[in-house]
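= Tokenised fold =
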Amino acid sequence: MNPLLENRRHITRREFFGRSACGLGTAALATLLGRDALSAGATSLPSTKTFGGLPGLPHFAPKAKRVIYLFMNGAPTHVELFDYKPKLKELHGKPVPETYFAGKRFSTMTGNPKGKVALAPIEPFEQRGQSGAWVSNLLPHIAGIADDLCFIKSMHTEAVNHAPAISFFLSGAEIPGRPTMGAWLTYGLGSETENLPSFVVMTSVSKGTSCGQIFYDFYWGSGFLPSRFQGVKFRGSGDPVLYLSNPNGMNRQMRRGVLDDIAKLNELKLQDFGDPEIATRIAQYEMAYRMQTSVPELTDFSHEPKEVLDSYGPQVKEQGTFAYNCLMARRLAERGVRFVQVMHAGWDQHNSLTTELYTQCKDTDQPSAALVKDLKRLGLLDDTLVIWGGEFGRTPFIQGSLDDRKRWGRDHHPYAFTVWMAGGGVKPGISFGESDDLAMNVIRDPVHVHDLQATIMHLMGINHEKLTYKFQGRHFRLTDVHGEVVKGILA
């Protein structure tokens, strides 16, 4: 038996590609190095320093420096909350005319909507503030800041199911695998802080909800971008990030020494293989070490004024709640975090409009309004873009029986719905776009998902057509090959 031949038989696929000095090994290494060099302006191996954004970005003076995206998983009902239509009350209990939905696709729960009856809003609307924006009594706190908000009432999308629709909003594609908005922005613009991640995600669910929405990791993934740009998810209990605390018997100096030794070993591997994921691992270790100091201060609310804590509502000190996450979002924005994604599930009211919708509104209304007011109080709202909305709307017709009020519901509706924005260069106190008299279809100034994404990028100083990344032979961007900036909402 020849030992050299035997060794070749047992070499692993990973070792083959990693160690090959020619052929596929060299080609793969050249691709990795070339891509990273072009992306970061590097001239040699990928840098292990904190990533500082691409050369030449922002493309022009930004209106916003950071984004807080309050994403309402499950799709809030626009006809119940923001899009007042008197005709729905007139048609309550009567079949919706077929001209409103002819040729349209709905979820399998609705199928063919023929014969479905209109359902009036369960609570009254009122016009609010100087702007006269219509907001339901279900959201009294958001109603109180109507003059600070820009309501986009002509949103529309293509997806009719939750996960694809959420992925579409956050990554520009219904199929998982593309970089999300937070990843794109941190890739292009870099971070304003070295002590916290530039892209942070927090999740919450209303207690007792029957909504089965799941928070998939691809909602904050980096896709084909290097993994250092993916969102860092803060947990809803205990340490926000695992392993921040030193193990028993290890002090900070000892941990520093261990990390230095690991970094040296990783640097040797980086020189051998040139794999940018090794650079990512080194950066993650360093970030975790710095977060040992920054995170305890971040999560210490003891110095917040009592009136500020009270403004967020009674759940503000309860880790894992939407109120807690909203205050954390403000504190993260203060400390230079580029993109904060606060996701709250429970809005999927297929048969719970008269029950769980009240809970959802109670849990999210006051903290959402408090966040906007708090940012304004601190002078941060001008350059912080706040976005509130879900993945689609809800049908103007009922799901269920009109005779069973306790189980009234509305199905998924992609053809018209409402999102609101505040600060960061958008016009306050306006309602942009319009749906028809049943809130079924957009009839004026339509805003597609890609248009919203292009507008967010524009407000951050980015031409959405120019921030691209070459992957598998194609230059990709957040807005795919679509998207127009919605100039009518720009301040």
About this structure: The longest strand covers residues 66-73. The longest helix spans residues 276-298. The two ends are 78 Å apart (CA to CA).
